[in-house]
Amino acid sequence: MSSDQREAQQETTTTTTTTVDGSGTTAMRATTFSSQRLRINPNNEHRPESYEDLKLDFPSAVYSSLEKYLPQQILASDREEKVKFMTDIMLRHLPHGERSRAHRHSVYRQKIITNYQPLHKELYTLSPVDCFVPSFMKAINESSEKSFRSIISEPSPGVFVFDMLLPSFCEMMLAEVENFEKWVGETKFRIMRPNTMNKYGAVLDDFGLDSMLDKLMESYIRPITKVFFSDVGGATLDSHHGFVVEYGKDRDLDLGFHVDDSEVTLNVCLGNQFVGGELFFRGTRCERHVNTTTKSDEIYDYSHVPGQAVLHRGRHRHGARATTSGHRVNMLLWCRSSVFRELKSHQKEFSSWCGECFCEKKEEKGRALDALRKKLVKAVRAPQD
Ligand SMILES: [Fe+2]
Ligand SMILES: [Zn+2]
């Protein structure tokens, strides 16, 4: 077994509000809320309400996108009732203690936002022409599989690569991150790192970039994931975890083999000069098969190019090789779908995208066909025997 194939870890945030994990959550789900379920097939005729004016436990977009999955009797009730029903459902995904943690996190975020002075204010509202390369803008405006295919390559199944960010935007982002790190150093403010595997880097959502990244996900990533990742909730992405990671001397060196706590991950290199740091992919796996061996056609290594984006399923096992010299900064957006997570928790079969499940099913089909063939041969021969 190569060093890439050690057990895949689950890369998680310590502060997320949507982790589906832990037996505690499952037990609670079975006893308290068994009658409260979303519909499996959405009511696409329904026009969702806006929840932006309310003070809510979760992003307002999550409520709007969940609405068409509500059972008919709840769908017909008033907004307050709907909010209560949806909040209850979403809270089921929070392990014990996570609620107060979520509250503490919002206080933490507020403390940063009121004290940190941004360097480039223009970064905080998404201005597409200042952010994206023209080819990307054109494809998004046309918003068809054909237009996406014209700018996106798929060098390995499930790994999509395309030019996305302008060099000037990457520079601004790098400068903003550096400015934030400088503020952290000067004020000795203890910040939370992006996840359990990176000691360096910063959570962009924590210092004011969350609404900009929300817009980025909704208007520029979701149209793409709707086409290429519909099997993992690509059409219903409604929350994100946005951060930068830093590699090189005095930073993180490499990143072990893992899967992300996301439905779809966007990974864009911001720069700068560096050697190494390749991203290695080793096939997509469900929870049950996360540590099964890699097949030769699942091996793919990608070398980062500043401004270029990689889009892959969170369950696509991957890691980063050592950045041997220079300094590399990547921006990550873990995109999540509350609808997908809710449906997945009610359905056993939900992993058409898992390489191993796929093989198991194929073998099973082969065995069934074999049995049928034998039976037929026997039936045909029977009269002559
Ligand atoms: Fe990752
Ligand atoms: Zn599987």
Automatic annotation (TrEMBL):
Top-level taxon of the source organism: Eukaryota
Claim: Transmembrane helix is one of the keywords in the record: no
GO molecular-function term, one example from the UniProt record: dioxygenase activity
Domain Fe2OG dioxygenase: 238-337
Gene3D superfamilies: q2cbj1_9rhob like domain (2.60.120.620)
A family per Pfam: OGFOD2-like
Biased composition (Polar residues): 20-43
Cofactor(s) recorded in Swiss-Prot or TrEMBL: L-ascorbate
InterPro entries membership: Oxoglu/Fe-dep_dioxygenase_dom (IPR005123), Pro_4_hyd_alph (IPR006620)
Region (Disordered): 1-52
Keyword Iron: yes
Keyword terms of this UniProt record: Dioxygenase, Iron, Metal-binding, Oxidoreductase, Vitamin C
PANTHER family given in the database record: 2-OXOGLUTARATE AND IRON-DEPENDENT OXYGENASE DOMAIN-CONTAINING PROTEIN 2
Name the UniProt record assigns to this protein: 2-oxoglutarate and iron-dependent oxygenase domain-containing protein CP2
